[in-house]
Amino acid sequence: MEPSATLDTRQHPARLLIAGDWTLAHYTSLKRDSERLRDQYGADTIADLSQLGRLDTAGASLLAELLGAERLSRCTDELPEASRALLKTVYCSVQDYCIPIKEAEQPVLLQLLARIGCAVDTLWQDTRQLLGFVGLILATLATRLLQPHKWRVTPVVAHIEQTGLDAAPIVALLTFLVGAVVAFLGATVLADFGATVFTVDLVAFSFLREFAVLLTAILMAGRTASAFTAQLGSMKANEEIDAIRTLGLNPIELLVVPRVLALLIALPLLTFVAMVCGIVGGAVVCALSLDIPPAMFLSLLQSDIGVQHFLVGLLKAPFFAFLIAAIGCLEGFKVSGSAESVGAHTTSAVVQSIFVVIVLDAVAALFFMEMGW
Amino acid sequence: MSGAREAVIEARGLCNRFGSQSVHEQLDLDLYRGEILAVVGGSGSGKSVLLRSIVGLRRPNEGRVKVFGQDLATLNDDQRSQVERRFGVLFQKGALFSSLTVTENVALPLIEHAGLSRADAEHLAGVKLALAGLPISAADKYPASLSGGMIKRAALARALALDPDILFLDEPTAGLDPIGAAAFDQLILTLRDALGLSVFLITHDLDTLYTITDRVAVLSQKKVLVAGPLAEVERTDDPWIHEYFHGPRGRAAEQAAASAGQEH
What we know:
CATH topology of the largest domain in chain B: Rossmann fold
CATH superfamily of the largest domain in chain B: P-loop containing nucleotide triphosphate hydrolases
Largest sheet of chain B: 6 strands, mixed
Mean pLDDT of chain B: 84
Strand content of chain A: 5-15%
Radius of gyration of chain B: 19 Å
Shape of chain A: elongated
Strand order of the largest sheet of chain A: 1-2-3
Oligomer: heterodimer
Number of strands of chain B: 10
CATH class of the largest domain in chain B: Alpha Beta
Number of domains of chain A: 2
Strand order of the largest sheet of chain B: 6-7-8-3-9-10
Largest sheet of chain A: 3 strands, mixed
Shape of chain B: globular
Strand content of chain B: 15-25%
Largest interface: A-B, 32 and 37 residues
Order of helices and strands of chain B: EEEHEEHEHHHEHEHEEHHH
Structural class of chain B: alpha/beta
Order of helices and strands of chain A: EEHEHHHHHHHHHHH
Helix content of chain B: 40-55%
Low-confidence stretches of chain A: none
Mean pLDDT of chain A: 88
């Protein structure tokens, strides 16, 4: 039955007729009606609920707001026991409940300044935390290094498989393609000077010193830092990390050190794979479009490129690995409760580790150049 | 009770297996309109799995479940959604959406299904929260900052949001203080009487069993061992049931319920 609330003013005192099904399905129209009526009747108006059909909690709350607890308690006698109990339960709980008033918004300029301040503070805190965390990992590593019987080999190997072996195909494919692209670029530019043969040097130089380790590190930042954050973050959200602490175990030693060690081993190996694949990519382009056969490519490589370039590239890998793992794990520990927080910190881990890798690489490039290595 | 009761849920020949491990074999269970049915059983006896198969979150390996006379598995998405709107489910851990505030959690089904405006929905959500006994200060908080008992209450408010016909409660009073648990029982009873709800209740709380349930189904040995009014179930000749109802806790709860009954 269509619900309604009508005010009958022909009688005195006026009667408020409540009829029909007061249910959720009619909530919007009933709310409109009752808001319109609210100002129109006085304290002496009698509510008539005898025509009331079905009633649910939504309808009961509307009635409670429309009539008020006191009037409602006077006019429910003719209702069935069950509806009366529902009305009573609802108005008792609604009585002391009102939606809290939201705080007024601050002016935009103030908000802008507040957010800038907040961001600067976060940056400072993040840096401090990261340095502290790096120190913590190093300290734990150092103490454990002296106790070989406490080494946790199994988790380290498992993480090497996940972060190293499983990533090898994607690293190999990407660096092969980038190697080919660099060779094409070199060929196009150097052809103007008739020096296409130096494409070999270009590919080998760039891959050994920079590209292999940088590309691998960026891939690892995207693939592994995010995985570490999500793993530790959901453990944190599930109170597993607190459980480890209360069992008297050290989460750094149990969770972080194996991951850091695994990446310390996996990233240099992947870097080597990346160097080989990048140079092979260059060699394929040279052979196909520059008439430099692989044998000549190899002999040029041997005569022109010193081993120090290979070492310079490889030297950076452990530093990148350590920072990527540390940032991934630290962001995981920062997760609080919600699923949204896991997402936010995973994003933050990837952004931070890529940022750190590139900054460190630039600093290293300057350093090596000044040193003449 | 009369024999011509209308069953809102009929489970017939239900089998649930996880790999080689079988949880239910040929399980039959009915939930009648307007009753509060408690499902009890030892840990790992498949109470939650039964709930999941009934609400359609898990497709049973064999057998079928009819809800309001319709088999959920055979319905198309629209019809299924229509039936599912008549369910209210309170999960064991609350399952509140962690990225929404408590009020938004309750308002979500009101906006999506009842078509209310955001302001109306949040207002009504406030009423439901008050009904579930959640303090007003918690309404704008995120689930992560609530205590276990408050999460239960907020989740109940969400389960009640659409005034469902069937309420599924998975251990609703676990983790509540005794005062809160008693109020919770009373609320379920009031709502059942007023709205004609049918309640499917999984519980370990003996006080709840003695105060509000109409029928008790004992889940044991992969099927419903016995289902009926509490007095009948208690008398069943089975060692587990005997231990359950006549152990020290069972006796205490029975006495408490009996003395509370005398006072009224």
